[in-house]
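Ticket opened by: R.M.
Priority: normal
Category: complex prediction / small molecule

The reporter submitted a protein together with fe (iii) ion and asked that the result be attached to this ticket for the collaborator who will pick it up next week. Submitted input follows.
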Amino acid sequence: MTQTHPVDVLTRLFAEQGGNEYLGEPVTQAEHMLQAAACARAAGAPDALVAAALLHDVGHFTGPISGAELMAGTDNRHGHAGADWLAGLGFPEAVTEPVRLHVAAKRYLCAVEPGYFERLSEASVYTLSVQGGPMSEPEAERFAAGRYAADAVTLRRWDEAAKDPAATVPDFAHYRPLLEALVAAR
Ligand code: FE
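Result attached by the on-call engineer:
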């Protein structure tokens, strides 16, 4: 039996569900994730973190609970759902763990960085409340000690920046070789 290549699964997902609106932001889900990946590339990030940026919200598509339900007040834990799903496709931890932690990273940054909360979009402020609000001090300390915390925080900043309706960035196919190499190397 031939199995669909993981990157083909992702290509189809971006093509089919990528056009969905992104939680009330002025960009689609696919535009949002492609912009996050372009930010990562522009920053000279390693390939795994570029892939994490590109794929960070797949949990809105693949988890048991949708992004629409998140906006209706149920935490869809899309970081965890996306990370587990990507691990199942064969991506290494350097991709899956920043994805897993990118929601926690927002809660962390709101707790430790003055002015961060004020810069969040309206939708992001709303989902923050559903996701547990800013971390407490002990929570933030525990988070920061984690192996992938720094990558998750970096990814989070690109996530916040990737909501520009006027941006023009490379398409999904552009990242195909990078994704194939990451899956093959694990
Ligand atoms: Fe996002």
